[in-house]
Every structure is written in C-alpha cells, then in structure tokens.
Amino acid sequence: MNIYDIAKLSGVSIATVSRVINNSPKVSEKTKKKVWDIMNEYDYTPNVFARGLGLNSVKTVGLVCPDVSERYMANAIAYLEKNLRKYGYDSILMCSGFDYEGKVEAVKILLDRRIDAMILVGSHYAGDCGQNDIQYLQDAAQKVPVVLMNGYIRVPGVYCVLTDNYKAVYDTVCNLIEAGRKKIVFLYDANSYSTTKKLEGYQDALIDNGLKVQEEYKVLMPNNVLKARDLLAKKRLDFDAVIASDDAMAVGALKYVHQINKSIPEDVNVVGFNNSELCVCCYPEMSSIDSQEEELSEIAVDSLIKVLAGKSVRQKMEIPCKFFRRNTTQF
Fold first, then answer.
1. What sequence ranges are listed for the domain HTH lacI-type (predicted)?
2. Which terminal residue of the chain has fewer beta carbons within 10 Å of its beta carbon, N or C?
3. What's the predicted TM-score (pTM) here?
C-alpha cells in the first residue's frame, strides 16, 4: 500500500492525498476525513519523508545493528550504505542494542517510516530463545523484504546472507592440531547464532582428531582486549593455542602470553576472527579468519534489489571465510 493506492481508493488525486498528509488548509474537512478513513482502514502510515517532501518519493532501506561502535558492525554498515547508494537507495540506521525489547522497537520505528526493505546486521537477530524470539521478524517480513546478514532463520520473506563460520573454525583447529597443538582454548563473548557455529566447529574438530573437549578451555568473556587479558591471568589455564570468536579477545590472549614470558608462535599459537585492523596493531602481527564483511554486504544489497524487482532469490546464501596467516601461527 502506497500513496498512489490511497489516492485511487479515496477517489482523489495524489496531490490531494499529499496535502491531507501535510494537513493543508486547502483541503476540505470532508475530503480529509475520507482520505484518513481509507488510510486507517488499510493500516497505512504516511511516509515521514513524504510529509516533508510532498509528492517526491524516496527509496529507503532500514538498517539495524546492535551497536555501531563495534568494529564488525561499523564496517558492515559502511559497506551496506555504499552499496545501497549505488542503486539510488538512502538508508536509515537504528542501533537496537542486544536486548529483545530494543530489537522489536528498532524494527517498529523503521516500519513506521514506510521503508522499502530492511537489513539486519548480526547473528543476534537470529534469536537465542526459540521461535518466539523472532516473531517480530516474521511480522516485519510480511510488510517488507528483510535481509539478515551473518545469521540464519527459516522465515518466509527473510533472506539470510552469511559466512560458513563452522567450517572456518573447524579447519583452523584441525590445522592447529596438525601443527602439534593439543591444548587449544576457545574464547567467545556471546551465545549468538554465529558464535554457536564457531563453538561447534571448535568442538567437532577436537573430537574428530581424538582430543577431549575440556569445558575449562571454553571461556566466555567480554569482547575487550584488557578484560580478556585479565580474565586469562585470573584463570591461569595451561594452553598452547588460542582461537577467539573476535580479534579483540585474541589480542587480549596475546598480551597475556607476553605477560607470562612465553613466545608466540613457538610456545603458543593465537588466531583471531574478523581480520580487523587489530591484527596488524599488535606484536607479532596476528593470524585471523576474515568474515568477508565487504562481500557479504554486497551480496545482501544485490539480493535485496533483486527481491524488490520481483526476481527469485535463495533464502540462504552462504560463502566461505578466508584465513589470513601472519606471525602468530605455524601452519
């Protein structure tokens, strides 16, 4: 439903509908009531941009992420905006936070602005607590196309673009074991869809190589360099390799290894995730798994444009990660 449909159903011109939306005194009260009755009947919320721009329509996509201060989120948003502009689309950004209520509110606000589509960045939107946790996305997908980046849910109208995090971590842990590492710690900061896949890859690689999964080697911690360093110092674990679900925690582990006077990579191997600038801001420069933000963003936007054009698009699009070897690993 758009302004053209409202005009047709009301039996007035588009210009008249626009004047009604903007509460113009040039329109009679009788006509205003007729137009508003139609809008209410069809649950039509006037585009806030149309209020200010009259008849000019604006192609707009809503972007949602939990926290734009996080490196992964910030980069993804930048890539998405760049690709959307390529197709002539503007974007509105909402930072929802990580709690359920914030996610629901962010999506509602964007829908109230009559966006053409929505892209959500981060696997936290894939839901942590079952079907009820994604009901708001099911509802949104009935109104506009929705793309979920870096997560997966099976919902009609929600198109998922993600990297194969399971295989990336599985292969990396296998390579660490082949290089002689047996006591491998996994650092993670959340129980999101993405992190769960990484954790599964870690555990399966250990099992498939005849190693026991030790619970104390799975360490949940804040995604922060210094907090990761300090927590490892407190736990005093004996390990010869670390793989983290984000680069910040891996750098924290690297700092802890320096602190206890062990050598990298001779004594301990360290692998991060996301291949951020942190990898080249530490010593030695750190190996990391690249989560392909730029390519994912391009696929997300290209797929969305196809959906808006009425073309067929796969509901799940998954691409491989890339491993960037630097000076903290021996494989």
1. 1-55
2. N
3. 0.81
Burial of 65: CB neighbours in 10 Å, binned 0-12, 13-18, 19+: buried
Identity of the residue numbered 309: A
Give domain 60-163+293-319's CATH superfamily. Response regulator (3.40.50.2300)
Number of Cβ atoms within 10 Å of the Cβ of 194: 24
Amino acid at site 49: F
Q: What is the sign, positive or negative, of the torsion defined by CA atoms of 83, 86, 87, 88?
A: positive
Average pLDDT over residues 20-26: 81
Nearest to 38 by CA among 87, 5, 73: 5
Residue 200 has pLDDT above 80, yes or no: yes
Give Cα 163 distance to the centre of its chain.
11
DSSP symbol at 284: S
pLDDT at 147 > cutoff 50: yes
Question: Which structure tokens are listed for 153?
Answer: 């849910």
Q: What was the pLDDT predicted at 53?
A: 41
The CATH class that applies to domain 3-53 reads: mainly alpha
